[in-house]
C-alpha cells in the first residue's frame, strides 16, 4: 500500500513494475478511494534522506501546469517512508509496446492520428515555455481507444529566456538532434521537433530511423541519410564545438525508403522536421497546419488496438 491509498496490483504473484526507465519504476495500482486503476511512479533517489530530488520537483511543477488531453494527467503526489510517488492516470501501453504488439505496418490513419496528437501536446508545451527534451516511443502512452499522451517530463525544463547551457546528456541517442550531437549548448524547442521526425519515420517503418550505438555512430547515421551538412545547408555548422573538418562527406538520399508507405505530404512533413538548421526546422504549431493533415478530423480516434 502506498500512502494508505494506492494498492499495488500483483501480476502473477509478483509486484514487478510495468515499466522502468531513467528516473523511476512504475507500478500499476488500484486507487482504493475511487476503485480506479492508476500508474504510480516511484522516483528513484540515491539519497532518500536528503529530501525530494530536484528532478522530481521539476517534473511535478511542470506537469501540474500542463493539463491537456494529449498530456498524461498527474493526479496525486505522495510521500511515504521517505520516498516520493507520483500518481498518474493509467494509460494502456507506451508507443514502443504498441508498435511491437501490432502486426504488420500501422495503418496510415493511425500514424496520422498519433502525429496530430503528439504535435498537439507538444504545441501546448512549447507555447508555455516547456520543452519535453526526451521524446521517444517509450515516453508516449497510447490508450485503448487510440489516444496518445506525452509522458515522462522528468527531463523537461522551462526554456524561458535566458537560455542557459544545460547538461549534455538529455535525449536518448536515437532521437537526439544533430545540433546537440555536435556539442551545441542551446536547448530549444526545435530539438523536440527533430525527435518528432524520427518518431514519424519509426511509425512508418516500424524500426528506429537512426539507431546509433555511440554519439559518432548516431551522427554518421544521420549524415548517411541526410547528407553531411555544410555551411551551405546549415549556416554555422562548422562553428559548433564538436564539428570536425574530417567528417566524411556523404550525399543526401531520399527519405522515401526510410519511411515506406508515407504519402508525399507525410514525407514533406518528415523532411521539414529533419531540417539540419534548428532555426529553419518546422515548429509544432506550423506542423499542425501542414497539408499532411488536410482533411484530417482530429476527433477521429485511431483505430482501436
Ligand atoms: N501513466 C502510465 N500508465 C501506464 N504505463 C506507464 C505510465 N507512465 C509510465 N508508464 C510505463 O512506465 C515506463 C517508464 O515510465 P517513465 O515515466 O517514462 O519513467 P522513466 O523516467 O523511468 O523513463 C514507460 O515507458 C511506460 O511503459
Ligand atoms: Mg521514460
TrEMBL record:
<dbReference type="InterPro" id="IPR000719">
    <property type="entry name" value="Prot_kinase_dom"/>
</dbReference>
<dbReference type="GO" id="GO:0005737">
    <property type="term" value="C:cytoplasm"/>
</dbReference>
<dbReference type="InterPro" id="IPR008271">
    <property type="entry name" value="Ser/Thr_kinase_AS"/>
</dbReference>
<dbReference type="GO" id="GO:0007165">
    <property type="term" value="P:signal transduction"/>
</dbReference>
<feature type="binding site">
    <location>
        <position position="41"/>
    </location>
    <ligand>
        <name>ATP</name>
    </ligand>
</feature>
<protein>
    <recommendedName>
        <fullName>Cyclin-dependent kinase 2 homolog</fullName>
        <ecNumber>2.7.11.22</ecNumber>
    </recommendedName>
</protein>
<comment type="similarity">
    <text>Belongs to the protein kinase superfamily. CMGC Ser/Thr protein kinase family. CDC2/CDKX subfamily.</text>
</comment>
<dbReference type="InterPro" id="IPR011009">
    <property type="entry name" value="Kinase-like_dom_sf"/>
</dbReference>
<dbReference type="GO" id="GO:0010389">
    <property type="term" value="P:regulation of G2/M transition of mitotic cell cycle"/>
</dbReference>
<dbReference type="GO" id="GO:0000307">
    <property type="term" value="C:cyclin-dependent protein kinase holoenzyme complex"/>
</dbReference>
<dbReference type="InterPro" id="IPR017441">
    <property type="entry name" value="Protein_kinase_ATP_BS"/>
</dbReference>
<keyword id="KW-0808">Transferase</keyword>
<dbReference type="InterPro" id="IPR050108">
    <property type="entry name" value="CDK"/>
</dbReference>
<dbReference type="GO" id="GO:0005634">
    <property type="term" value="C:nucleus"/>
</dbReference>
<comment type="subunit">
    <text>May form a complex composed of at least the catalytic subunit CRK2 and a cyclin.</text>
</comment>
<dbReference type="GO" id="GO:0000082">
    <property type="term" value="P:G1/S transition of mitotic cell cycle"/>
</dbReference>
<dbReference type="GO" id="GO:0030332">
    <property type="term" value="F:cyclin binding"/>
</dbReference>
<feature type="domain" description="Protein kinase">
    <location>
        <begin position="12"/>
        <end position="293"/>
    </location>
</feature>
<keyword id="KW-0067">ATP-binding</keyword>
<dbReference type="Pfam" id="PF00069">
    <property type="entry name" value="Pkinase"/>
</dbReference>
<dbReference type="GO" id="GO:0004693">
    <property type="term" value="F:cyclin-dependent protein serine/threonine kinase activity"/>
</dbReference>
<dbReference type="GO" id="GO:0010468">
    <property type="term" value="P:regulation of gene expression"/>
</dbReference>
<keyword id="KW-0723">Serine/threonine-protein kinase</keyword>
<dbReference type="GO" id="GO:0005524">
    <property type="term" value="F:ATP binding"/>
</dbReference>
<keyword id="KW-0418">Kinase</keyword>
<keyword id="KW-0547">Nucleotide-binding</keyword>
Amino acid at each position: 500500500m502506498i500512502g494508505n491509498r494506492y494498492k499495488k496490483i500483483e501480476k502473477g504473484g509478483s509486484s514487478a513494475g510495468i515499466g522502468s526507465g531513467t528516473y523511476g519504476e512504475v507500478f500499476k495500482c488500484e486507487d482504493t478511494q475511487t476503485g480506479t486503476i492508476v500508474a504510480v511512479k516511484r522516483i528513484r533517489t540515491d539519497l532518500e534522506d536528503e529530501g525530494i530530488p530536484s528532478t522530481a520537483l521539476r517534473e511535478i511543477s511542470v506537469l501540474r501546469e500542463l493539463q491537456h488531453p494529449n498530456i498524461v494527467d498527474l493526479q496525486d503526489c505522495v510521500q511515504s517512508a521517505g520516498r516520493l510517488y507520483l500518481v498518474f492516470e493509467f494509460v494502456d501501453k507506451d508507443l514502443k509496446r504498441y508498435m511491437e504488439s501490432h502486426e504488420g505496418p500501422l495503418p496510415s490513419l493511425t500514424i496520422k492520428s498519433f502525429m496530430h496528437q503528439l504535435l498537439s501536446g507538444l504545441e501546448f508545451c512549447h507555447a508555455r515555455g516547456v520543452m519535453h527534451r526526451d521524446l521517444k516511443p517509450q515516453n508516449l502512452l497510447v490508450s485503448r481507444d487510440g489516444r496518445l499522451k506525452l509522458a515522462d517530463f522528468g527531463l523537461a525544463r522551462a526554456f524561458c529566456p535566458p537560455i542557459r547551457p544545460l547538461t549534455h546528456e538529455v535525449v536518448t541517442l536515437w532521437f537526439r538532434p544533430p545540433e546537440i550531437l555536435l556539442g551545441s549548448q542551446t536547448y530549444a524547442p526545435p530539438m523536440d521537433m527533430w525527435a518528432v521526425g524520427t518518431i514519424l519515420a519509426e511509425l512508418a517503418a516500424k524500426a528506429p530511423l537512426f539507431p546509433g550505438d555511440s554519439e559518432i555512430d548516431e551522427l554518421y547515421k544521420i549524415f548517411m541519410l541526410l547528407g553531411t551538412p555544410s555551411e551551405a545547408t546549415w549556416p554555422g555548422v562548422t562553428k559548433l564545438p564538436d564539428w570536425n573538418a574530417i567528417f566524411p562527406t556523404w550525399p543526401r538520399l531520399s527519405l522515401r525508403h526510410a519511411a515506406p508507405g508515407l504519402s508525399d505530404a507525410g514525407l514533406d512533413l518528415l523532411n521539414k522536421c529533419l531540417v539540419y538548421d534548428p532555426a529553419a526546422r518546422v515548429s509544432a504549431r506550423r506542423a499542425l497546419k501542414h497539408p499532411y493533415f488536410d482533411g484530417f478530423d482530429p476527433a477521429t480516434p485511431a483505430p482501436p488496438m
